[in-house]
Design goal:
34% helix, 8-stranded antiparallel β-sheet, binds fructose -6-phosphate, Rossmann fold, Glutamine Phosphoribosylpyrophosphate, subunit 1, domain 1, 610 residues, 26 strands, 3 domains, alpha/beta
Amino acid sequence: MCGIIGYIGSKPANEVIFDGLTRLEYRGYDSAGIAVVDKHKIHVRKDIGKLRNIRKLLLDEFESTSSIGIGHTRWATHGRPSAFNAHPHGDCHDSIMVAHNGIIENFMKLRRELAASGHTFKSETDSEVLAHLIEASYQGDLKQAVLQAVKSVEGAYAIAVIHKDHPDKIICARKESPLIVGLGKGENFVASDVTAILQYTRQVVYLDNFEGAEVSREGIKFFNADGNDVEKKSVQIDWNPVAAEKGGFSHFMLKEIFEQPQVIRNTIGGRTSEEEGKIYLEELKLTGPDIYRTQRIVMVACGTAYYAGCVGKYLLESLVRIPVECDLASEFRYRSPLVDANTLVIAISQSGETADTLAAVKEARKRGAKVLGIVNAKESSLTREVDGLVYIHAGPEIGVASTKAYIAMLTALTLLALMLGKIRSVLTPEYVQEKIRELKILPQQIERVLDRKDAIRDIAATCLDARSFLYLGRGFNYPTALEGALKLKEISYIHAEAYAAGEMKHGPIALIDHEMPVMAIVTESDVYDKTISNLKEVQARSGRLLAIATEGDHEITSLTEHVIEVPRVSDIFSPIINVVPLQLFAYYVADLRGLDVDQPRNLAKSVTVE
Ligand code: F6R
């Protein structure tokens, strides 16, 4: 998704901005641009393509060393990827420049009205109307013009605005799209995402909806929709900038897969007491009565976070004995969902900015449900919309394909299920004690899987020409199959479909022949024998079988072409360990096919549009 960075200080603005834009690359983009104010003139350069290919234009041969400017990476929504659709966008005379994230829903109407009153448009974007609206309202006061302009806008926006006659300020504002202000010494920043400015400052202020800021070198004034001053508190971001670098790995995705043992330690850190068999989730904010009153749980999320929710269903139903439904946030929000005060809605999101998940949460709260967020990004929009929170502590996830956030979500859901199961007297303290013990050794067990990376790479190398894959799993590992298939298709562009293994004979079995690899998740569990029977059906039709199986399982080796072994763990922890070889498998297939693993085509990291 699009990214914004603005800088005002004493360094050459285009250098700081270009650097910030490279740190936003992980969000996915198709074009980029920078605009600065220099001697009552705007200098703007923008083009289609990756930053490394347009570096000359934006950095090496940029004609100004001005120390105030804004930049943007664009992920096309309205209007094809092109230089003229790239941001920043100007008004009729290029006196004003705007970088915008979000979608202006009534832009057609606004554009017609502005054109009728003489404005000329240079792009096909919805965003350009903002520059013209500001131009139409401008009477010497940029802040007032921005406030006036956004009044006519329907939809979502995070904007950073500069004006040729105001070399001393950037005006920014937000509604429904994230925006932060970073505080430096003699310099200040605006950004859509902390990763853009972490190397300069960790002190940031998160703007709320309908808030804005006037950012100058000396300081920042925050204001509300009426233009009145508001007090805002800054927060110290504890993410280490090094954590956002590749640290010697060839891709962020690989680095993040290898961080997973530590991520589990971080997610459980300080939240368990083995002696007492207790789990502490401090930000949860659910009272005893809330927990006893809950008759139904509904998970809402998108993509990988949704599959984490599907594992959550198995966990909560077996450990808490409450019925759980999983809903795609984009479906939930539009189907008049049946939730009430006795329903607990759990919204799961790495970014905390996914538009559909945020809208689903608002819908659930409107209908009286309590909403719990399971979130990675601190202070993200979702964290401000929920009644209680469980932070997953995965740290910054840069690779577009989610890996470590998924593992952290599963770990957090396991903690939640153990805690609720104990409070509702479904689980004994002894059971919880035993599971805490097992949870704590899970990181070492995952390290053993990571040690098998070369073997997994060799298996991946045998599958590079496959046109389609089938992933099979049952029970706790049906969602693992779904997530494994998603990983493969999003980064290798090979079609992959996941099925509950018992469902295969009801249709997909027709696809099986000697060219179709079938990846089976068949670790020890109550449904092991059933899954083996399903795999025999594949074998009987000459399907190519690959399997994730428990160490020492000899039965499976006679059935399959390749086996990836994982350590033996309890069924409830098996989704956490079994997904790791699937992540590595997808990674190596994509890498060996020569693809851009960290920024797969058409994908964005944080999907802030519907
Ligand atoms: C897949 C992936 C996406 C996200 C989805 C939700 O690898 O990254 O499917 O999981 O867009 O994103 P969040 O978790 O930020 O709400």
